[in-house]
Amino acid sequence: MILLVGGLGMRDTMAGFLDLLNNDISTYTTKVSLSENADAEKAKGLATELEGDWESLSGISLDGDTVILDVIHNGKGLYNVVDVNNERISLSDDGVYLCLRLSDRANIGDTVEFSPYGSDKTYTAKVAGYNRSIMTESITMTDSFADKLGIEYTPTAIYTDKLSSEIEKNDIITGRQDQAQLMESFNSFVSIMDTMVLILVLAAVILGIVVLYNLGVMSYVERYREFATLKVLGFRDKSIGKLLISQNLWLTLIGVIMGMPAGVGVLQWLLSALASEYELKLMLGPLTYTVSVLLTFGTSLAVGLAVARKNRKIDMVEALKNAE
Amino acid sequence: MEIVQFDNVSRIYVSGDHELRALDRVSFTLDEGKFVVILGPSGAGKSTLLNLLGGLDSPNEGKITVDGRDISKLSDNELADYRASTVGFVFQFYNLIPTLTAYENVNLVSEISANALDAKDMIAKVGLLDHLDNFPSELSGGEQQRISIARALAKNPKILLCDEPTGALDSETGVMVLKLLLDMAKEYGKTIVVVTHNQNIAKMADTVIRVKNGKIRSIEEQSNPLSAEEVEW
Known about the structure:
Helix content of chain B: 25-40%
CATH class of chain B: Alpha Beta
Number of helices of chain A: 8
Distance between the termini of chain B: 32 Å
Order of helices and strands of chain B: EEEHEEHEHHHEHEHEE
Structural class of chain B: alpha/beta
CATH superfamily of chain B: P-loop containing nucleotide triphosphate hydrolases
Number of strands of chain B: 10
Largest interface: A-B, 19 and 30 residues
Largest sheet of chain A: 6 strands, mixed, barrel
Number of strands of chain A: 9
Oligomer: heterodimer
Largest sheet of chain B: 6 strands, mixed
CATH topology of chain B: Rossmann fold
CATH architecture of chain B: 3-Layer(aba) Sandwich
Radius of gyration of chain B: 17 Å
Shape of chain B: globular
Strand content of chain A: 15-25%
Shape of chain A: elongated
Radius of gyration of chain A: 30 Å
Structural class of chain A: alpha+beta
Helix content of chain A: 40-55%
């Protein structure tokens, strides 16, 4: 149960992450990468021309750690920022947003100090909230707030709904990437993960069968005399089998009730281990719960039936001959 | 009135080329409501006879009729139903379910017997009402055997089959168990068949069947059987 919920839940979480990326964060058609040395006004002018949003990524020092400062202009809603619940945030012009990995550095309303690399200036800004960063460890703010603080920045990427082919050549453009291509690469990664999850599920089922069958046989051998007594009293093989299977199913129910939260716990632990790289939100679909429960009960039932078949071979006379 | 009829019954065990006739063309009849003792040394075939009568085993040859029904050719399920409805067992080593309480052990048979008697009443009859919630491991040998008798009678069977019922008990407890067995059988009108090698128990029987080497040696009717207390142990 733990392996099933963990494995299938990881798949749900990754699928949810891609869904978030595709439908909530990146709704643009093309990402245009800009030269580091581009003139800021020229870059903003190009963004206006392409009717797009833009962002500027640069390195800063925060409490001695290197993080990314993400200055965003997203009036068109083509590149968005989401909160811990994956809801879009309408960025405030009065503060910065810390990614979840940095959320322990300051509470909302507190201030943080940071210094851009290559500059001896230090800026202080109020924390307006936390956001789920999909890639980098970052501090996010609007261009208006950056202007208010007097931070110098240059757009590094423009997000537009224009097709790559519609974008004319420009000396500050260093690359173009279709959002569909980006998603395609993610999807191929997810399909590899699907195979791994399938292997994990199969391994969990095989492990379940081996362990449950061995335990079932051990229990059967221990209770052989008891079953022989029931048979002598007049219980049919089928009734004894039902008794054995129903006891198994009750134990399975307890296993499911305990295994489900344990599986979620394992997944949570896995995601927290990955947290330094990805800020994934744990997601578990009803299908995962259903498949996990059905597979667990199915395995238990199949093993119970296999063990119960042994009832037919109970030798009542031999079993009851001697004292225990 | 005859309740059991063995007609040329044989039980043969084959091991490789070796053939063992545990019972060899045995014929006899038993009357309803009698106390019958099957007597014989170890290996005589008395337990085989009891197993055949109890539906735990089937004969290779011959016919066994119990209460007008031929049980020698029944299927496994039919034999299970026969055991549930017609015979009750009392074993030398009690064979109670260790994970069930005394009450649960006796009440168990209500699941398979349509005419089951009340479990609590039966435990009261064997004088163990104070031990309803005790597990077998918490009871003495004599108490376990009394629960075993209550279980056998709770099924309300026509015949009570007892395989060395006092074999694991001291003589004092053995007398008590035998007395209880007889009193209960008399009260409920049951036929009792006891298999034993103990000659003293035979003195209490209405009918004594002596078995040796798989054959019936003698069938003796006793007009004045002794009571359990009169038997010298």
